[in-house]
Design brief:
The protein is of the alpha+beta class. The protein has two helices and eight strands. Strands 1, 2, 3, 4, 5, 6, 7 and 8 form an eight-stranded mixed sheet that branches. A hairpin with a 2-residue loop joins strand 4 and strand 5. It starts with a helix and ends with a strand. 22% of the residues are buried.
C-alpha cells in the first residue's frame, strides 16, 4: 500500500476519532454543510519527497494535512479558535502513528493560520505537517 494512502487514512481516522460530534467534509466525498453548526473540511497537500540517502531504498513523503474549521459568523471567533486548538492538540509535535507498516511523524507544532470570513462563515485553517517513512 502507498505511504500517501496510509498517511491519509491514518490522519483522517485520528481526526474523526478526536472530534466526536463534529461533522467532517473529506476530499471528494459528497457533503452537505450543517446550517447551524461548525464543521471541518480536510485537504491534503503532498510536497516533494525528502531523499536523505543516495540509495533508492528509502525516502520520506512530506504531506501537509490541511484542516479548515468552518463556523457560523457574527458570534465572534472564540468557538472556532477553540476547535482549531483541539485539532492542533490531536496532532501535537511528537505524535507518531503507524498505519499498515508506514511510520508517520508530526515533527512540528501544527500552525493555526488565523481567521477569515467567507460569505456567512468564519474559517480557521490548521496546517499539520507530517512525514511518512518509505522503505522499498
Amino acid at each position: 500500500m502507498s505511504a500517501v494512502i496510509n498517511t491519509k487514512r491514518a490522519l483522517e481516522r485520528r481526526l474523526s476519532q478526536g472530534l466526536v460530534g463534529v461533522q467532517i467534509a473529506y476530499e471528494n466525498v459528497s457533503f452537505t454543510p450543517p446550517t447551524n453548526a461548525a464543521y471541518v473540511r480536510t485537504q491534503f497537500l503532498i510536497s516533494k519527497p525528502d531523499d536523505p540517502v543516495i540509495s533508492d531504498l528509502y525516502y520520506r513523503e512530506r504531506i501537509t494535512f490541511q484542516v479548515f474549521v468552518i463556523d457560523l459568523s457574527n458570534k465572534g471567533t472564540a468557538s472556532a479558535l477553540t476547535l482549531a486548538e483541539q485539532i492542533r492538540a490531536l496532532f501535537k509535535k511528537g505524535t507518531t502513528i503507524n498505519e499498515s507498516g508506514t511510520n508517520i511523524y508530526v515533527l512540528n507544532t501544527p500552525k493555526i493560520s488565523g481567521t477569515t470570513i467567507v460569505n456567512d462563515r468564519v474559517i480557521v485553517p490548521i496546517m499539520i505537517e507530517v512525514v511518512a517513512e518509505v522503505y522499498n
